[in-house]
Design goal:
Radius of gyration: 30 Å
Strand content: under 5%
Number of helices: 32
Structural class: mainly alpha
Shape: elongated
Oligomer: single chain
Largest sheet: none
Distance between the termini: 135 Å
Helix content: 55-70%
Number of strands: 0
Length: 639
């Protein structure tokens, strides 16, 4: 009898997931689309009316990257915020290209592309399925609420903190899955620290790590918390520092103006709005003002919002409590947005598009896994579902492209804001600043008057309107506005400096010097104090004091040709001709087309007997259009 051959059965293998599941072209394709969508941002200006001024243009710490400024960057706050790493980048860029906006915007766009790549790799680690990875990455890349973080130079801190944040998430997943190696753990700590030094919003990183544990089905043990203690300590330390700087500034002032109950309503309404704008990203604005109360009551939607959120939470618990994808996504979103819901109060607006830059990853994850699971269950309509997603993505691309152009400059930005919020006092004030910058003082005055109709206690607008009257030589009106601004806010060094200039015009020199001193006491790093006071000392021939102020000013603004010239004149008056020639030469190097600089250098050269050089310089001044004093020409032997 023939024996049957023994059938050898191979053990069943789990289906291997090929790298081809997520094709190699997906990431480059998404990055290309993203670059096209955000390309208009590269042509935008700096928004000096909305923190680009505070962080870059008027920030003396960015004027030059040296050891002294580097120390200041890491030991001081800027605009009541502590985010030193972006300020270092601003200083590096400004040291090389000055205030030309292109490179600033290019850095933001490149970092957004990097964040998109990191999100791709994080999604790739969490799921090998094409549509999950594609949906998460594409939505993160092109969602219209990305625009504020990318097109606004100040929000370098957003894309920078996110890059380190997602880098830490990727490293953590590796650490959990591939053995808990000490070097990788230390690397995660470094990334966490860099993220925190970029933006305080990174304090939520250890909470996100716990959510990764939940998604990875790690057993809930005390050890999960224990291994994250260094991360919690880092977050707590930077969080306390951030709150301290907010209190030192005025950005927690809403706490004094609104009750805890109102602030809870603001938080609930803001949270609800973030959900709505996730699906319907329309009516976006750079500034969302707090609501105006009527008879002591907020708009009715603010009272309804908490109940809607509670109902939503009950529904999620009832329907999705065992769905790890939904729970992970919602908690990731909530944990990363909860500290910016303005319940504490940190600014003039109760919500901001930029606050969603990292939190929306959680909602993107829910949508992506939802599309994937629904497509697998309903294969007959999967194609239509995916086509619908692509159409939606195309719409988002168009909206983001258009939104980038709204951030073109202060004029386009605040015109958009007041169109959507006609009672936006901040919007009208910033429009006034913009119109003054383009020499349209009539439009500026119109906007300032509109602000004061809406909010008669807006101190900054009185200062700004005073500047219009100052430009027009209406000294009494300017003085009245500066007085009003100071009565409402005694902490603004700019207003004291401006009022000092009015006193100088009125020859009330003692009052002017007192205001300069008050401004210096408020902010000794405000350069215009030393600029203006130095000019005054020069006019009254107090040359040593003038030189001291000019020296201080040039520490902040080392490329101001006019002040080199002014300091040269003071030195010239004191008979220090060699030093004055050096200053006039520096002024000429910075602006060689200004004839007065050539004439001033000629005078100093003549005083020390360098007659040939003096003649050459005065002739250059004449070529540039200057008509010198005939007596000086005769002194040089020139007809």
């Amino acid at each position: 009898m023939k024996k049957d051959k023994k059938k050898i059965t191979q053990p069943a293998k789990a289906p291997a997931v090929s790298r081809d599941t997520v094709p190699f072209w997906l990431l480059p394709a998404i990055l290309l689309v993203t670059f096209i969508v955000f390309y208009p941002a590269l042509k935008n200006e700096l928004i000096y009316t909305w923190d680009d001024g505070v962080n870059i243009i008027d920030n003396h710490l960015t004027a030059k990257l040296n050891s002294q400024n580097l120390k200041g960057i890491f030991t001081q706050s800027v605009g009541s915020n502590y985010n030193p790493l972006p300020i270092v980048v601003f200083a590096l860029i400004r040291s090389n290209v000055g205030l030309e906006p292109y490179l600033y915007h290019l850095v933001n766009v490149i970092l957004h592309l990097l964040c998109t790549a990191l999100v791709f790799f994080a999604a790739r680690m969490l799921s090998k399925k094409f549509w999950v990875v594609a949906v998460i990455t594409l939505l993160f890349a092109i969602h219209p609420l990305r625009v504020e973080s990318v097109a606004w130079v100040t929000e370098l801190k957003d894309v920078m903190f996110a890059a380190f944040y997602f880098g830490a998430i990727i490293a953590y997943i590796h650490w959990v899955r591939n053995g808990k190696k000490i070097l990788l753990y230390l690397f995660m700590l470094v990334l966490a620290a860099l993220s925190l030094l970029s933006k305080i919003q990174a304090v939520t990183l250890p909470l996100s790590m716990l959510l990764i544990d939940y998604l990875e089905k790690r057993p809930l043990k005390f050890s999960l918390l224990l291994e994250k203690i260094p991360f919690f300590l880092l977050s707590a330390g930077v969080g306390v520092l951030g709150i301290y700087f907010l209190q030192v500034g005025d950005t927690l002032i809403v706490n004094q103006q609104s009750s805890l109950f109102d602030r809870l309503l603001y938080g609930a309404y803001g949270l609800g709005n973030y959900f709505i704008k996730f699906f319907f990203p329309v009516n976006l604005s750079a500034y969302y003002p707090y609501p105006i109360k009527t008879d002591g009551m907020l708009p009715v939607l603010y009272y309804i919002a908490p109940f809607l959120l509670i109902a939503f939470a009950v529904l999620v618990i009832k329907k999705f409590r065992n769905n790890r994808d939904v729970i992970f996504g919602l908690l990731f979103f909530f944990f990363n947005v909860m500290f910016v819901l303005q319940v504490l109060g940190a600014g003039k607006a109760f919500m901001a598009d930029r606050f969603t830059y990292v939190p929306y990853f959680g909602l993107f994850y829910i949508v992506a896994t939802g599309i994937q699971n629904f497509s697998e269950q309903k294969k007959n309509i999967a194609f239509l579902l995916k086509i619908g997603f692509l159409i939606c993505s195309l719409i988002f691309c168009v909206l983001s492209y258009q939104r980038c152009m709204v951030w073109k400059n202060s004029g386009t930005l605040w015109t958009d804001n007041v169109a959507k919020y006609p009672k936006s006092d901040v919007g009208y004030d910033n429009l006034g600043v913009y119109y003054r910058s383009i020499k349209n003082n009539d439009k500026a005055l119109e906007n300032y008057n509109k602000v004061l109709e809406l909010n008669p206690k807006y101190a900054l607008t009185y200062n700004n309107r005073g500047n219009i009257y100052f430009d027009r030589g209406q000294n009494d009106l300017a003085l009245a506005d500066y007085d009003k601004a100071i009565s409402l806010d005694t902490t603004n060094e700019k207003t004291y400096t401006n009022r000092a200039l009015i006193y100088l015009r009125k020859k009330e020199y003692d009052k002017a010097l007192r205001d300069f001193a008050k401004a210096e006491a408020i902010d000794p790093n405000f350069p215009r104090i030393y600029f203006n006071r130095g000019i005054y000392y020069d006019l009254v021939n107090e040359n040593e004091k003038a030189i001291a102020d000019f020296n201080r000013y040039l520490q902040f603004e080392p490329k101001d040709d006019g002040i080199y010239n002014s300091r040269g004149i003071s030195l010239q008056k004191m008979g220090r001709y060699d030093e004055s020639i050096a200053d006039f030469t520096r002024a000429i190097d910075l602006l060689p087309t200004e004839p007065i600089y050539w004439q001033n250098r000629s005078i100093s050269e003549n005083r020390i007997g360098q007659k040939e050089k003096a003649i050459a310089d005065i002739n250059k001044a004449r070529q540039l259009g200057l008509k010198p004093d005939p007596n000086y020409l005769r002194e040089l032997g020139i007809q």
